[in-house]
Amino acid sequence: MTDTIFVTGLSIHARHGVMDHETEVGQRFVIDLELYTDLSEPSRTDRLADTVSYAEVVTTTTAAFKNTNYKLLERAAGAVADAILSHFPRIRAVKVTVHKPHAPIAAIFDDVGIMLTRSRHP
């Protein structure tokens, strides 16, 4: 059985990108997370110790995303996935979506970004 914990719309200012102004000024990124785990125990016990703290997930995600300036969203999202899997042993897999709504693209668009899924190796 796989259950899901999710965090959507986490807005973080960071300095990722290949253009000089992206690394100097930075911009807003939006992160969505899906954390795949088994929630059968906390659904019975009602104890935080039996699940994953959303607050800790947000703190871990923010630190992983902001602590290093990456050129590619793929690498920034990979850092988030790696941090979540290493800090939360209950999480079997994670899907990270990074939106870059103000990407320097000469076009009118609502959003661009990437989505990646990483899981533990057996």
TrEMBL record:
Q: Which SUPFAM superfamilies match?
A: Tetrahydrobiopterin biosynthesis enzymes-like
Enumerate the spans annotated as Dihydroneopterin aldolase/epimerase domain.
Answer: 5-118
Quote the Pfam families the UniProt record gives: FolB
Name the SMART domains on file: FolB
**Top-level taxon of the source organism:** Bacteria
Gene3D superfamilies recorded for this chain? 3.30.1130.10
| UniProt-recorded name of the protein | 7,8-dihydroneopterin aldolase
Q: Which organism is it from?
A: Bradyrhizobium centrolobii
